[in-house]
Amino acid sequence: DAGKGEYDHYMLKEIHHQPTALSNTIDGRVDDGTVAFETPLSQLVANIETVQLVACGTSYHASMFGAQLFRSAGIPTEVIRASEYEAMAGPVDERSLVVAVTQSGETADTLDAVRKAAGRGAKSLAVTNVVGSTAAREADEAIYIRAGPEVGVAATKTFSSQAVTLALLSQRLAGAVPDATPRADGNAMLEALPDLPAHVETVLETSRADSLARDLLEDRSYFFLGSGLGHSVALEGALKFKEITYEHAEGFAAGELKHGPLALVTEESPVFAVYTASEDEKTELNATEAQSRGAPVVAVGPNDHPLVDDADAHLSVPDTHPVWTALLANVQLQLVSYHVADLLGRPIDKPRNLAKSVTVE
Ligand code: G6P
């Protein structure tokens, strides 16, 4: 427990460690608009034409986030839940790169998916937090997210560091994969990156998630919606919420609201609407739809946005490049989950039935 320092829980300590973790993730990897990792990756990616990201849980949400950036860099990319690899993955061969995104490097389903892909000729890369982990040892190459040890079962800082590592990797591969064109705003994304740790600090210092949490305790269901990168963050927000509060939470793509979840929307189902400046239209429309059925809407994103004016509450994040805005929104949602769980007296660092690392299939 001494390891918790001034914090009541490891999870809160790890949420607050994100500025440092992210500084470490970024350190020395971007120079004048060019991304370079410690391992050059040149041989690994020399003949790569397609990428598959495989992962579970929170790492899957970071992979969804990453996959969108890979695609926007012109790299044909699939993102597959590792446990569904056989059913969902497209064919691979020696021109494919399978990327195992796994904090621990020990998740059985993820290791199994990589082994299957490698058995079919794919090259493999581990994106992990743990040096010497099975994923790092078995893959052809490894990149470390450098988040530092994470003790809380609910992953927080590793999500942020995975997402940033994958964003960097998308830029690195854009320069290597044939026909891939770096995203038009790739330089702007990289230029804004050094400010991300300070922006996370601002969120941590100014967040009103603790007072908002008090208003949410009596509700029945909690919905998280977003589009694009906001979709990944919505799924992650809902997963975190259910893991540690034990309350029903569901995340979905904003446009899916009317295809089912709307049936559950009442005045007792707050809706967290995650938006960035560039991905907000569907989120705004569907948040309004939920609100008209009585659901309180919490806007999670930058100020100066119509969603903020209409919402019942706002969790504000600094206005930076939209890619990083999405990650800042996730930090706000981490804090909401933490404070709700804390007020409910849940065992935050060790939720019932869950394990930090799932080494069985
Ligand atoms: C478990 C943990 C999650 C984690 C998932 C994948 O379910 O409780 O927090 O996201 O495993 O773990 P990995 O180590 O592969 O990232």
From TrEMBL:
GO terms, biological process: carbohydrate metabolic process; fructose 6-phosphate metabolic process; protein N-linked glycosylation; UDP-N-acetylglucosamine metabolic process
Subcellular location(s) of the protein: Cytoplasm
UniProt catalytic activity: D-fructose 6-phosphate + L-glutamine = D-glucosamine 6-phosphate + L-glutamate
SIS domain sequence ranges: 41-179, 212-351
One Gene Ontology term of the molecular function aspect: carbohydrate derivative binding
Main location: cytoplasm
E.C. designation(s): 2.6.1.16
Record-annotated active site: K356 (for fru-6p isomerization activity)
Assigned keywords, A-Z: Aminotransferase, Cytoplasm, Glutamine amidotransferase, Repeat, Transferase
Cellular component, GO annotation: cytoplasm
Stated role: Catalyzes the first step in hexosamine metabolism, converting fructose-6P into glucosamine-6P using glutamine as a nitrogen source.
Quaternary data: Homodimer.
The protein, known as: Glutamine--fructose-6-phosphate aminotransferase [isomerizing]
Organism of origin: Natrarchaeobius chitinivorans
Primary gene name: glmS
